[in-house]
Amino acid sequence: MLEISIIKCLTDNYSYLIKDNNTDLIGIVDPSDFETVDNQIRTKYKKLDFILNTHHHQDHIGGNAELKKKYNSKIVASKIDEDKIPNIDYKVVEGDIFKFGDTKFEILFIPGHTKGHIAFYSKLEKTVFTGDTLFSLGCGRIFEGTYNQMYNSLNKLKKLPSDTKIFCGHEYTKKNIEFCMKYDFNNKYLVNKLNWINLQLQSKKPTLPTTLAEEIKMNIFLRCNIPSLKKDLKMEKASDEEIFKKLRDLKDQF
Ligand code: ZN
Ligand code: FE
To answer: pTM of the full predicted structure?
Structure first.
């Protein structure tokens, strides 16, 4: 069993402290800053075996150096990020299996936000850490990759089992649903979801994890193939990928 604690970092980042219960291994996914995550690590576990990075942006690796120094942790990150993330111990690529004790994480290569972006997926735990590629009700900005890469990466994630829990890098859900409501205005699921999001945020709780089933129903970026959405966008004849590109551009200005 994998135990996951959500740690809120910086303004809207999430780091995830993980424990493999069978072997007592401890890891952290995307430590944004040392102080915040170490507060939890030193009180809860007093050790940190692994640091898992989804991509090289500072708000996902900010705690790496100090954590590694203090706990002698091993860093697991994308081979493509080897020049951007210092001191990677395990450089991983698509299809690799990273054994975190009894929890096996499959590495999914999901470029677009950055060139080397990866996700950590455990089939058994029905859990995926998606960094800044798939958010709840949104997707990451395309900084280094292409629209085509991002589109394919989202479709790759979309093919995981629908009960997969999604842990992403930021609390952007509220802003994301406002965008979904503007352009997918006939989607009947969004109103209830907005109410729930507001309640969560008011009580200072995260809106995560979400599930793939929920995202497929509501995340506009996973709905580029839906004829009624194409119609609402007045783009009936457009390909799914053209819809994606249009939505990503609109979101950049939103
Ligand atoms: Zn990022
Ligand atoms: Fe980020």
So the answer is: 0.98
Q: What is the mean pLDDT of the chain?
A: 98
**What pLDDT shows up at residue 51?**
99
Ion ligand 2 — residues with CB < 5 Å: 59, 132, 169
d(CA 182, CA 98): 40
What is d(CA 163, CA 175) in angstroms, rounded to the nearest whole number?
A: 24
* CA 167 / ligand 2 centre spacing (Å): 13
Q: Supply the Cα-derived Rg of the chain in whole angstroms.
A: 18
Domain extent listing, the chain: 2-252
- Three-class secondary structure of residue 108 per DSSP: strand
Tell me, what's the pLDDT at 68? 98
Q: Is the peptide bond before 209 cis (omega within 30 degrees of 0)?
A: yes
Q: Compute, in angstroms, the gap from residue 180 CA to the centroid of ligand 1.
A: 21
Q: Does domain 2-252 have CATH number 3.60.15.10?
A: yes
Predicted pLDDT of residue 192: 98
CA–centroid distance, 57 to ligand 1, in Å, is: 5
> What's the gap in Å between 22 CA and the centre of ligand 1?
32
The per-residue pLDDT for range 135-170, each reduced to its tens digit, is 999 999 999 999 999 999 999 999 999 999 999 999
Using the mean position of ligand 1's atoms as its centre, give its distance from the Cα of residue 205 in Å. Answer: 22
Q: How far is the CA of 114 from the centre of ligand 1 (A)?
A: 7
Q: Which residues of the chain carry a pLDDT beneath 70?
A: none
